[in-house]
Design brief:
Elements (H helix, E strand, L loop, with lengths): L22 H17 L1 E4 L5 H20 L15 E4 L2 H4 L1 H7 L2 H11 L4 E10 L11 H5 L9 E7 L11 E2 L21 E2 L7 E5 L4 E2 L10 E9 L9 H4 L2 H5 L3 H6 L11 H7 L9
Antiparallel strand pairs: 1-7, 2-3, 3-9, 4-7, 4-9, 5-6, 5-8
């Protein structure tokens, strides 16, 4: 296990407070996008102010309780060895704070830098590693929705750190360079011995390209929770992991802005984003003589 801290250099972004970004903000975001394209990941510190981060964490715990009340368990034995790993689904239906975060300007800027201007919100979930939580199986998120070979970046995770994230409290572990793997057979047998932790302060964003192989870390602390939100975005021709027509209540759907409806695949028209380019390049049949 490499203990190197994977933090992106650069100033914190000021967009959370609604102020105009400074030159250093712009430079930090540009550097993050470059690292995302080259290395498959980046970290942006200070995207959320401390008070907003604490509020989001409080609302996440409330959402976990609401999920249990609705009959949706927060422990998934198929993913996690024990109940110390708390997973919360359908966050977009539970609280407007999560609908705001999934369309946060900095998050969408990173998404568009990798996927282009057209994308879908495939999922938005949470994972809280409590003391004693253990790792899930090694995987890449693009491999879950696209069969191999994985030749292009068609997915990205925007990870919101609601607590400080360290190796000891269960930071996500990733395999450097694995975003270049085209097939499952490219994953080395000793992959787990080469994993590194994403470490960041509360309020940061971690962006991770969909082809990066990773796993949740084990929380080996005695009394420290690690809380992360995962916004999963994909190319617009990939079916989302969630059927938002079913999971979002009529009241929530009715209150969505047009952009959100499009990103969630709730409009009548779908998957025609390349039509203009396809028709422009198509040969035109010459008229036949009568």
């Amino acid at each position: 296990m490499h203990r190197e801290i994977t933090m992106t250099a650069g100033a914190a972004l000021s967009r959370d407070a609604g102020s105009s970004p400074t030159r250093s903000d712009v430079d930090a975001l540009a550097a993050a996008k470059s690292r995302l394209r080259e290395d498959g990941w980046c970290v942006l510190p200070g995207v959320l102010a401390p008070e907003r981060t604490r509020d989001a964490l409080d609302r996440l715990w409330a959402a976990a309780a609401e999920s249990e009340r609705r009959g949706v368990a927060t422990h998934m034995p198929v993913l996690d060895p024990n109940a110390s790993n708390v997973r919360v689904f359908n966050l977009l239906d539970m609280d407007p704070v999560f609908r705001a975060l999934v369309q946060h300007p900095t998050a969408l800027d990173l998404v568009c830098s990798l996927l282009g201007p057209e994308f879908l919100i495939s999922n938005f979930t949470a994972n809280i590693a409590r003391p004693g939580a253990r790792s899930m199986p090694l995987h890449s998120d693009q491999a879950i929705v696209v069969p191999e070979p994985w030749l292009h970046p068609w997915a990205i995770n925007i990870i919101w750190c609601l607590t400080d994230v360290r190796f000891e409290n269960g930071a996500t572990l990733f395999l450097p360079g694995s975003h270049r793997f085209a097939r499952r057979s490219d994953v080395p047998p000793d992959a787990l011995s080469h994993m590194r932790p994403f470490e960041a302060e509360a309020g940061s964003i971690i962006a991770m390209e969909g082809r990066v192989w990773h796993t949740s870390g084990a929380n080996i602390t005695d009394d420290e929770d690690r809380a992360l939100l995962f916004g999963y975005y994909t190319a617009p021709f990939l079916r989302p992991q969630v059927n938002w027509n079913v999971t979002l209540s009529p009241a929530v759907q009715a209150g969505l802005e047009p952009d959100m409806r499009r990103w969630l695949g709730l409009e009548a028209q779908a998957n025609v984003g390349l039509a203009g380019a396809a028709f422009a390049q198509a040969p035109t049949a010459a008229p036949r003589a009568e």
